[in-house]
Amino acid sequence: MKIFLFFSQFYRDLKGQKLRTALTTFGILWGTASIVLLLGFSNGMKSSQKKAQHGMGEAIVIIWGGTMSMPYEGNPKGRRIHLHAEDVELLKSQIPEIKYASPENTNWSTTVSYRNEVYVGQVTGSNAEFGVMRNLIPQRGGRYISPKDLEEKRRVAFIGFELKEELFGEEDAVGKTILINQVPFTVIGVMIDKDQNSSYSGRDKTKTFIPYSTFRSMFSRRYLNNIVVKPVVASESEYMRTRINQVLARKYKYNPEDDEALWEWDTTQNDEFFDQLFLGMNVFLGIVGFFTLIVGGIGVSNIMNAVVEERTKEIGIKMALGARASFILTQLLAETLLITFIGGVLGIIFSGVIMKAFPVFELEEYVGTPAISTDIAIFAALLLGIIGFISGFFPARRASKLNPVEALRL
Questions:
Q1: CA angle at residue 118 from 114 to 120, to 5 degrees?
Q2: What is the per-residue pLDDT across 98-140, written as a single tens digit (0 to 9) for each?
Q3: Domain check: are 90 and 206 in the same one?
Q4: Do 70 and 7 sit in the same domain of this protein?
């Protein structure tokens, strides 16, 4: 019965103050939409940037030979450190924290041709684990380099999707023969079209990848360009790099404390940077949305103060007839929370419609695809509840403390 009375009272107030209630509800709607949209777009941008960053590989470390910056055991300062193919197996055998490792050599300005189409670009030699580490995912019907290809020094090639378009157009490339510096190679796979916004030797979309053993016999390279490694657990990346430095320092006789002897790029540090960057952005945007929502909360508080003024005599009659202060407090507070709830729901629905319609503008490449995550929904709900409670509590408390006699005089 009390619930029925509450809703009938709420409907009467709503009907009597349509414009004021609508404007107040809109304030809550806009504040909620501000928080959800700002955080939704921030999360979409973060996901897009991380996906593009991981196009080069996730939690990998690239290692180059450097130059000794201090003398060590008779070796002079300025001595070059050159990495060799056998270093890969050495590292894997002595460092259990390494999950994958691959040598890498690149030949620049290499001619790759198919019939009358010619492209001058990079040819990279690597092992089978390289494709897993570097997210070189083949399109359906193809594959990346296998251990058997390395063992038998097969002349097979895996090509980037843009290179495939340059050479083959709409024609299927897998199984076809291309010429790399006039040497025939069979295309075994084409990389999927992937996002990539970072690299250390150019984008993968235009590269040709061949077995390292074949590359070595074809281009006669004595040293590696670099080694790519991936830890078993991303959090062990720093320790793994320390162990790599120690193992190679023993082999090449340089001081393990020499920061210039090896050059390293640990991509897990990029992830940490992005996490901190977007955490700061989310905090800032959350604060902006919070203050926008507070404006709506002030509107709710104002309308409830007006309701108390208009219903002072009615409240006095209820209290004179035996209504407790807690009943008056609960009724007015419930009305406030209901207005807040309606505005919040409408705000979330409004945000969802905008996010669903956003792909029409085809801007995902720049700002990603916005999405309402569980964390955002919980945060918005808690914030709405707190603001709604505070907005309604003080007017309701003032009403519950009215003196019935004084209220009836007004």
A1: 125
A2: 999 999 999 999 999 999 999 999 999 999 999 999 999 999 9
A3: yes
A4: no
Per-residue pLDDT of 182-201, as tens digits, reads: 999 999 999 999 988 889 98
Task: Please state whether beta strands 156-159 and 208-211 pair in parallel, antiparallel, or not at all (unpaired).
Answer: antiparallel
Q: Pick the closest to residue 277 from 45, 96, 109, 95 (CA basis).
A: 45
3-class DSSP state of 313: helix
Domain extent, residue 249, equals 61-267
Q: Is residue 361 packed enough to be buried (19+ CB in 10 Å), middle (13-18) or exposed (0-12)?
A: exposed
316: DSSP letter: H
d(CA 282, CA 289): 10
* Torsion of the alpha carbons at 270, 133, 56 and 64, rounded to the nearest 10: 70
Task: Tell which of 235, 267, 299 closes a domain.
Answer: 267
Report how far apart, in Å, the C-alpha atoms of 104 and of each of 48, 221, 226, 273 are.
Answer: 28, 11, 5, 27
Q: Are residues 93 and 106 in the same domain?
A: yes
Q: Do 67 and 183 fall into the same domain?
A: yes
Domain boundary among the residues 267, 285, 316 is at 267
**DSSP 8-state code for residue 257:** T
Task: Classify 323 in phi/psi space as left (phi over 0), alpha (psi -120 to 50) or beta.
Answer: beta
